[in-house]
Amino acid sequence: MSRWDSSDLPDQSGRTFIVTGANSGVGAATVRALAAAGAQVVLACRTVAKGEQLATEIGERARVRKLDLADLSSVREFAEGTDGADVLINNAGVMAVPAARTADGFEMQIGTNHLGHFALTGLLLDKISERIVTVSSIAHQVGTIDLDDLNWERRRYQRWTAYAQAKLANLMFARALQRKLTAGVTAKISVAVHPGYAATGLQSHTESIQDTLMALGNRLLAQNAEMGALPSLYAATADVQPGGYYGPTGWGGIRGYPGPSDSSKASRDEKVADELWELSEKLTGVTYDFVG
C-alpha cells in the first residue's frame, strides 16, 4: 500500500457525508478533510455546542445535527430529519467507561458503539446512496460476543472486555451488512476500519488511574487524530473491497498509512454474526430493508 493520505482525497464536490461523533478526535479530523476536499459534511453530535464550534471553523460546507446514540429516540429523530447522503461514517464511540446504562437500558459501550449505530444505519439505509463505513478497533482482536448476556446484566462488569465486545460487534456488523447488501442486489457497500492508536479524548473517560496511563501512551506511542482518520477517509472515498477491513499498516496496526487490516477469527464467524444481527433487531426494534 502506498503512503495514501488526505492529499490523495479525490474531489468530493457534490457529495454529502454524515459522520457520527464528528465534534472531536478522529471524527473532527475526518470532517475537516472531507470538507477541504469539497464535500458537504453533517456533524452528527451528542454535544451540539462543540459541533457548532467546529462547523464555524469549517465554514458553509458543514452543518450540525443532534444525535445521541445512547438514546434510540434521538436516533429515530435524527433519521426522520435526514433527507439523504452519499456516505454514512459510523465513527462515534465510548471506551472503557464505568458501568452505566443507555436511555434504553443497554450497557453503555455495546449500546452506544454497536446498537446505536445498528439502529441508525437501518433507519437511514434507504437514504444512503453509496456506502457505510463503520469504525471498529484493534481491540476487537480480544473480543468475544456473549449472546446470552450482551448487555452485562448477569456478568460482573469489566470495562475493557465490554469495549472489546462492542468493537468486535462493529466489525461483525459491517461484514454482515455487506453480505445482506449483496444478497439484496444493491450497489451500496459496507466497509469497516480502525484508526490504530490515535491520540484523542476517547482515552480520557475511564474515570480511573487508567486515564493518566493512557495519556502517557498518547504521548509515547500514538499517532495524531489526522493519521487516525485516514482509514475512514480511505474507506469512504477510495476503491475498496466491499466488506473489507482497513487500518494503519505499520507498527502492528497501531500507526501508519491505511491499507487492508488483519482481523480475528471470531470476527469472521458468520453464524454468530447472524445471531448478533437478530438480537440487535430485537433489542432496537429496527429491521432492515435490502430491496433495491
> What is the topology, as strand order, of the major beta sheet?
3-2-1-4-5-6-7-8
Helix and strand succession? EHEHEHEHEHEHHEEH
Low-confidence stretches: 202-210, 212-218
Assign a percent range to the helix content: 25-40%
| Count of helix runs | 8
Overall 3D shape: globular
CATH topology: Rossmann fold
Tally of individual domains? 1
Structure characterization notes:
The protein has 292 residues and is an alpha/beta fold. The protein has a single domain, classed as 3-Layer(aba) Sandwich (Rossmann fold). It has an 8-stranded mixed beta sheet, with helices on both faces. The chain is globular and about 50 Å long. The two termini are 34 Å apart. About 5% of the residues have low confidence.
In short:
With 292 residues, the chain is α/β, with parallel strands linked by helices. It has a single domain (11-284), classed as NAD(P)-binding Rossmann-like Domain (Rossmann fold, 3-Layer(aba) Sandwich).
What is the topology?
Layout: E1 16-20, H1 25-36, E2 40-45, H2 48-58, E3 62-66, H3 72-80, E4 85-90, H4 108-124, E5 128-135, H5 159-183, E6 189-193, H6 210-220, H7 225-237, E7 245-250, E8 255-260, H8 270-284
Parallel strand pairs: 1-2, 1-4, 2-3, 4-5, 5-6, 6-7
Antiparallel strand pairs: 7-8
